[in-house]
Amino acid sequence: MSHTLRVIFAGTPEFAATALAAIHEAGFAVPLVLTQPDRPAGRGMKLQASPVKRYAQEHGIAVAQPPSLRRTGKYPEEAAAALDLLRATPHDVMVVAAYGLLLPQEVLDIPPRGCINIHGSILPRWRGAAPIHRAIEAGDDETGITLMQMDAGLDTGPMISEVRTPIAPGDTTATLHDRLAQLGAKLIVDGLLALERDGALPVTPQPAEGATYAEKIGKQEAALDWRRPAVALARQIRAFDPFPGGAATLDGAQLKLWAAEPVERSASARAEPGEILDVSPAGVVVACGEGALRLTQLQKPGGKRLSAREFLAGMPLAAGQRFQLPEAPAA
């Protein structure tokens, strides 16, 4: 089935590629895709196309990769060329998902029916770069996708629609990301169908209350501070899978921790935070500021992610050993 609505799409990672595929497969014309410039990645640090660019190229969709869209930024000529291209490309609406570049007001003013953003949280909670990670890390019970009419602020525009999903106890950023990508893809197709049918979409301003900012994940956040409660550390590890993983130093070796569960610890067990209390094939139990954490999936430097049983076969650990504490307590 073909549609009259023409969609320019802007996005970069897998989350965005899922939405682009759904829009294209639903029969909407996509005359142009914007995505981030190719970045070096992998062991050889070769330039790699984004998942969105790969999908567009495989399906014969034109791609532009401006390093900026701001005339006043570092790349004024490239930005001006991209703005000219947007104006010269006949379209009705622009859809944006995890694009990674700020859209100045000049860009937002180009599409006749505005810019719709697919955002991975229930706004106004978790505006910003890493809403999926931060929702898990904070222990939220649920999250979801919000379709939003974009304005010049950071995820501050009025809301069009939303869909919610519970955060399961075993969810990692990887599993929740994939679920939200599918939900976002369905929600945007439904939104575009409604826009085509009705000519406009109803919008609701975001509530002023409850806004939080989901800061980008930094590698330096990976270090586990054993003085924190075990429950918080377990959430941190789930939030940081697949990147950057939980990190902990034992006898000078930096280990990555990929899965863990909080466990009770007997009141009589006197142990400093970071001290190993018990080692068994079921996991390595480490004392925390509150409770203890059973590590069930670990990785040594240069190794693979392994179950505790497989890991211990290659790197035996013993009760009484202590993980190093980071220098300053985590905020």
TrEMBL record:
**Similarity field:** Belongs to the Fmt family.
- Formyl transferase C-terminal domain residues: 216-315
Which reaction(s) does its UniProt entry say it catalyses?
L-methionyl-tRNA(fMet) + (6R)-10-formyltetrahydrofolate = N-formyl-L-methionyl-tRNA(fMet) + (6S)-5,6,7,8-tetrahydrofolate + H(+)
The answer to whether the entry has keyword Cell inner membrane is: no
| Keyword Phosphoprotein listed | no
Species of the source: Paraburkholderia acidiphila
Xref: CDD domains? FMT_core_Met-tRNA-FMT_N, Met_tRNA_FMT_C
Function, as annotated, reads: Attaches a formyl group to the free amino group of methionyl-tRNA(fMet). The formyl group appears to play a dual role in the initiator identity of N-formylmethionyl-tRNA by promoting its recognition by IF2 and preventing the misappropriation of this tRNA by the elongation apparatus.
- Cellular component terms, GO, for this chain's entry? cytosol
> What protein name does the entry list?
Methionyl-tRNA formyltransferase
Which top-rank group of organisms is this from?
A: Bacteria
Q: List GO molecular-function terms, semicolon-separated.
A: methionyl-tRNA formyltransferase activity
User: Where is each Formyl transferase N-terminal domain found?
Assistant: 7-190
Which keywords describe this protein according to UniProt? Protein biosynthesis, Transferase
Entry-linked NCBIfam families? fmt
What Enzyme Commission number does this protein have? 2.1.2.9
PANTHER family membership: METHIONYL-TRNA FORMYLTRANSFERASE, METHIONYL-TRNA FORMYLTRANSFERASE, MITOCHONDRIAL
Organism placement in taxonomy: Bacteria, Pseudomonadati, Pseudomonadota, Betaproteobacteria, Burkholderiales
What EC class does the entry list? transferase
